[in-house]
Amino acid sequence: MDKLLIQGGRRLSGEIAISGAKNAALPILCAALLTAEPVTFTNLPQLKDIGTLLALLEQMGVKVAREGGTVTLDASGLNNPVAPYEMVKTMRASILVLGPLVARCGEARVSLPGGCAIGARPVDQHIKGLQAMGAEVAVEHGYVHAKVPRLKGARLFTDMVTVTGTENLMMAACLAEGETVIENAAREPEIVDLANCLVSMGARISGAGTDVIRIRGVERLHGATHRIMPDRIETGTYLCAAAVTGGEVRLTGTSTGYLDAVVDKLLDAGCEIVSERDAIRLSAPARLAPVNLRTAPYPAFPTDMQAQFMAMDCVASGVSVIRETIFENRFMHAVELQRLGADIRIDGNTAVVQGVERLQGATVMATDLRASASLVIAGLVAEGETQIERIYHLDRGYEGLEEKLAALGASVRRLS
Ligand code: EPZ
């Protein structure tokens, strides 16, 4: 298994480009299942999860033509609406094929994604919504089996805000008979990017980005070309990496537009941020002030940035309180940060962090995607060498991580 070796203590400076958003690309690639015409996507990040999803689509009969960050999918030959366990278990976002397959083929067999390190991750809301639209759904032998001649528009209300639940149901509704209204919809920017892609394919959607999305079903969708939006979590991660090292960086191909809550916290921590049309500049003080966080659905502070900020708070000049309200087990980076000398006390979904003067490098283990990013950030500022094991987690969500960090002056090496 690959490891990452980081020599801490270097101030990050320079400029890097931000990649396309993983969490926009995943649902948008699944949208290609909704039409028999070719769909082309650009600015696709080269990530493990993207490769996994493309392989999953290919075994369904979708033709995949990929050239770097551009891919064209042709689902005219879609003949196997099945997502097998062996593939779904490595990437739970595979559940996003469920809605499109039921809408396009009238049936689907998708393995239950199962939980992951950060929580149980149930998909009951996805199923409830499809049932409300007339699908017969059985959960047996670890698979969701859905069948319906044609989905019917309905008024859907999810019990909690769910990002992929909203995406699955919005995609399913595009080809349903009549109008669907999704209440309590998630408002994440990736949902707006998906809606924009679907509309360019002929879907009739309004309200994406608000908590009420209306979709008027059409007979079929057509091909289109869509550019994936920038990755706001990758952006936030590099802003934190620069901030914790007292650095000064410019990130291009991105914007603060979808990061208001994160930018606010970086300003509170003492950073200066300049927002350009297609770039962000950050300069950080020698030592950050502590910031309190409470994660919540967009536009509030994103749970996907919680671990990165905890790493920053570990060396801040005071005490901070972090509350995680989305997932039940998203503090696993805390015990690894403690190995680096952090002073963190966990009480349920609340972490109290007492900033220390400095962290000491050590060997730590990555447990999930954003926890790994947190350990990288801590390693950048820890004294001496930090070795991060199981970094396949990182490769799922960060394109060219060590190249980008090295371009900013970090001393980072991958050991295979
Ligand atoms: C998406 O996951 C993201 N993944 C996650 O990013 C992100 O952390 C999460 O949204 C929250 O913003 C993708 O977009 C591919 P949810 P998702 O459904 O859709 C509960 C990363 O690091 N719930 O919004 O799976 C659920 O257990 C990943 O890039 C149900 O109970 O999250 C959680 O507690 C990690 N039943 C809460 O809702 C359901 O049917 C929010 O989950 C669905 C969700």
Walk me through what this model shows.
By secondary structure, this protein is α/β, with parallel strands linked by helices. The chain is 31% helix and 25% strand. It is built from 14 helices and 24 strands. It has helices spanning 22-31, 48-58, 85-88, 98-105, 124-132, 163-173, 189-200, 232-244, 260-268, 306-313, 332-339, 369-381, 392-397, 401-407, and strands at 3-7, 13-17, 39-42, 63-67, 70-74, 82-83, 107-111, 136-140, 143-147, 155-157, 179-183, 204-206, 212-216, 224-227, 248-252, 272-275, 279-283, 293-294, 319-323, 343-347, 350-354, 363-365, 385-389, 411-415. Strands 22-23-1-24 form a four-stranded mixed sheet. It has a four-stranded mixed sheet with strand order 2-15-17-16, with helices on one face. A hairpin with a 2-residue loop joins strand 4 and strand 5. The longest helix is centred in the middle third of the chain and has 13 residues, at 232-244. The protein is elongated, with a radius of gyration of 21 Å. Bound molecules: ligand EPZ. Ligand EPZ binds at residues 23, 26, 93, 119-126, 160, 162-165, 303-304, 326-327, 369-370, 397.
List the helices and strands and how they pair.
Layout: E1 3-7, E2 13-17, H1 22-31, E3 39-42, H2 48-58, E4 63-67, E5 70-74, E6 82-83, H3 85-88, H4 98-105, E7 107-111, H5 124-132, E8 136-140, E9 143-147, E10 155-157, H6 163-173, E11 179-183, H7 189-200, E12 204-206, E13 212-216, E14 224-227, H8 232-244, E15 248-252, H9 260-268, E16 272-275, E17 279-283, E18 293-294, H10 306-313, E19 319-323, H11 332-339, E20 343-347, E21 350-354, E22 363-365, H12 369-381, E23 385-389, H13 392-397, H14 401-407, E24 411-415
Parallel strand pairs: 2-15, 3-14, 6-7, 10-11, 18-19, 22-23
Antiparallel strand pairs: 1-23, 1-24, 3-5, 4-5, 7-9, 8-9, 11-13, 12-13, 15-17, 16-17, 19-21, 20-21
Bound molecules: ligand EPZ.
Residues 23, 26, 93, 119-126, 160, 162-165, 303-304, 326-327, 369-370, 397 line the site of ligand EPZ.
